[in-house]
Amino acid sequence: AEDPARGFIPAFGVLSLFEAPFGHGVRVDTGVRTGSLVSSHFDSLMAKLIVTGPTREVAIARAKRALKQFKIEGVASVLDFHRAVLNEPDFTNEFNVHTRWIENDFKQELKPTKRGIPNHQQPMLLSYIEIDGKLHRLGLPAGMFAQGPATAAQAQTNEPEVSAEHLLAPINGVISAWKVENGEQVTESQVVAIMEAMKMEVQVLAHRSGIIQIGAEKGATCHAETVIGSIN
User: What does 18-74 look like in DSSP terms, one character per residue?
Assistant: First the structure.
């Protein structure tokens, strides 16, 4: 559960869908399923996809098919990155991949995944539903029906409003340092803070230029996509 477009920073939240691939030469080791919580208190590993074949070409073809079948929703994952790598000549032909290959030679642009917010990280009520004769596992928010029909509308009104000036936390983690002073002039892409999660430091970058107002103290624990300041 990492977002390749954001420097492979960990992503946490509830899995709204987890469908693993299957087939000859395909094996998946996992400890999660639809409705599972990927917690910020542990490593973000969700699964291992192992693909084998009598030749490298066959193994790559099976891996492409398996990655196409693999579906993970609710949190960011490295699936798109793996799919992209399997279309890179450096990997499929002469295998010119090295320890700095991602930073220096991988050129494909991957889209950032919308990160979960606390309101989405709630207990799931798991049940089953039959569709066209097939049994499907269904996960719904545990409190969805707790207060009757008004619940959905009420939940919408409780969503935190995010404006253009708001500075958002890129990950679930702790603000370990602010690199600027309150009221300081900052420029777009400037490092304004450092957050820590799972022993990893992530830079918080200014999303635009302006005067920064700090809204979360050093040492505060914040969820991804929550407001920690503003830039006007």
Answer: EE---STTEEEEES--TT-EE-TTS----EEEEE--SSHHHHHHHHHHHHHH-EEES
For CA atoms 21, 114, 13, 150, the dihedral sign is: negative
| DSSP-assigned letter for residue 169 | -
d(CA 221, CA 40): 11
pLDDT in tens, the chain (232 residues): 998 888 888 888 899 999 999 999 999 999 999 999 988 777 889 999 999 999 999 999 999 999 999 999 999 999 999 999 999 999 999 899 999 999 899 988 888 776 554 444 455 565 667 677 666 656 666 565 555 554 444 444 444 567 889 999 888 789 999 999 999 999 998 999 999 876 778 889 999 999 999 999 999 988 878 899 999 9
